[in-house]
Write the structure tokens for this entry.
Amino acid sequence: MSLLRVLLCIIFPPLAVVDYGCGSVLIVFLLTLAGWVPGVIAALIIVNRSRGF
């Protein structure tokens, strides 16, 4: 996970997961609307899992 991707997850979570599919963007967007922290956590999990496997 690059530093730029982590900063993007923190600043604007839906933009960080845009290349992981429409479903991921929608989930992170909805979680970000519900609260900024859940959106950031979901974005970090999606980015970390996708790069790890």
Summary: The two ends are 12 Å apart (CA to CA).
